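Practice problem 4.
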């Protein structure tokens, strides 16, 4: 593990390792991230508290073995759910998880320690429903799923909560993955491509 990583708990951020909770063999007991990323999350968390929210961190740095475990499970599940094969199955799986290791010099985002999966909680630390389960393999994972003209009251609330999370993270410098409402990155290859800045973490 990178020696420049710190736990979210050591910085007084709310967190729980979701893959440990879900029983993944290669999961970590805590959420680990680059110190610079934790600094930004602390700023976003502080900004949110005036509105009655906190950040709740689920996942950060991953080992290659955990990345492989996730990739294999989702690849197989999507194959069963969709009937896709070959290149189409590979591309569909990549919407939800990166393949393990380094591809064309680019590591999986979570391998950098600069990518975070997180949600909103209330000030007592209770997780708030944002209209979709973590790692749900459906269209509801897309951040703009509730950005529609005609919405029911609960759906409007989900939309507004997702906007709140997005604005809090983008406001301190993160970029969001377009297929997962909970996934944000800072200093990664994707971040550099979207912001025009140099890559900070590989």
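Answer key:
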């Amino acid at each position: 593990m990178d020696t420049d990583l710190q736990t979210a708990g050591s910085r007084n951020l709310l967190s729980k390792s979701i893959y440990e909770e879900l029983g993944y063999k290669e999961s970590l007991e805590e959420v680990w991230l680059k110190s610079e990323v934790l600094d930004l999350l602390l700023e976003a968390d502080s900004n949110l508290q005036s509105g009655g929210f906190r950040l709740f961190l689920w996942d950060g740095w991953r080992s290659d073995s955990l990345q492989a475990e996730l990739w294999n499970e989702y690849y197989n599940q999507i194959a069963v759910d969709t009937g896709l094969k070959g290149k189409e199955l590979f591309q569909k799986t990549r919407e939800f998880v990166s393949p393990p290791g380094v591809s064309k010099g680019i590591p999986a985002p979570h391998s950098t320690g600069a990518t975070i999966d997180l949600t909103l909680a209330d000030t007592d630390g209770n997780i708030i429903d944002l209209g979709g389960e973590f790692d749900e393999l459906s269209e509801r994972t897309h951040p703009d799923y509730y950005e529609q003209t005609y919405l029911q009251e609960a759906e409007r609330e989900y939309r507004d909560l997702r906007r709140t999370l997005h604005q809090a993270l983008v406001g301190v410098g993160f970029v969001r993955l377009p297929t997962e409402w909970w996934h944000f990155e800072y200093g990664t290859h994707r971040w550099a491509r979207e912001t025009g800045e140099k890559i900070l973490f590989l």
